[in-house]
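Dear support,

Our group has been running a series of protein-ligand predictions, and this particular one with MU-OXO-diiron is the one our PI (initials K.S.) wants archived with full inputs and outputs. We had some confusion internally about which version of the output was final, so please treat the block below as the authoritative record. The input we submitted was:
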Amino acid sequence: MKPIEIAKNIYDVGVNDWNIEDFHGYSTPLGTSYNAYLIVDDKVALIDTVKKEFADQLLANIEQIIDPRKIDYVISNHTEMDHSGGLARVMHRIGEDKPVYCSKMGAKNLPMHFSSKLNYQAVKEGEKLSLGRHTLTFLETRMVHWPDSMFTYLKEDQILFSSDGFGQHYAGFEKFDDVVGHTIMPHAKKYFANILLLYAPLILKLVNKVSEMGIGIKMICPDHGVIWRQDPLKIINAYAQWSNQTPKRKAVLVYDTMWHSTEQMADAIAAGLNAEGIKVRPMYLRKWHRSDIMTEVLDAKAVVVGSPTLNNGLFPTVSDFLTYMKGLKPLNKIGAAFGSYGWSGEAAKLITQEMEGMGFEVIAPTRHQYVPNAQSREESYEFGRAIGRLIREQVPA
Ligand code: FEO
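Confirmed final output from the archive:
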């Protein structure tokens, strides 16, 4: 890919990964990009690398601007291997004695991934590095989303290099928010819901910290997807809102089914929710990917989960979803379970227990034996209405 000069003497030298479909359990139908940034000054700095298999593409991109051996410093904002996998190859090319600036935790973690002989230089919060006309300031962002994560701020151009923060899994030649347009926001939301939600309280603190520091931000350059240059405040405000997890009058109804009985219950429950004015879409687990469902969970007030009982337990796709959701720790949710069964009927109870463990406000589940009839469909409809009324009580219109 031809490098893009994003500001004078500052280039995006990253790569598109058009073909990746699954990013450690997160569906990426539009692929992703691994962004890396080159600043050419008296000293030349490379901010982050790319996934290992794209290291030669990164070097080829750099070569279109300068001889890679002229790079003086590498900044590693994050140890995760989609940004550091190319480090060994890059260092081999530019000189293994060159300093790799990283956070204190980065200096601990990087040698557990790569050679311990590299020249890792741990930086402190607020520490500065002059390149000549450009000055970099390092901001510790521990657990957003790894212990080693940090941001790098370029004062003169007011650019924040934000690692995974504000990123989106999106491969494209459109590298800026104003070029790609509003369609990028669902990708940013999905990224937040599936990568960062777990750390929402820390992100809120970070957003507040950056606001209080009063630093100007003209551009946010994440390590995935497009660069925010038209309206960086738009994504900062979206992060503040998502971190607050303020729910809408909305329910996510997720289920699997064996012989369509749990499906019939799901349809009736959804109709009941809709009758109370609650936005809802039944999400069948063999149609919807867990990461797309989590995106919907982010701003929903209720999560309604249905499973048939299979061998005295949950249907496997339902277990998968519950495990995934539990890890991401969504807050402020009402939980409700339902499901059909043949003879033992444990599934709805097991879902209820799982959601209690997640801190949800859980209501008593509803079950139906074998195939729903008109009466049980009515009961499911009323179950949906009851959840809907609870949402209306708790969420202003
Ligand atoms: Fe894009 Fe946490 O790596």
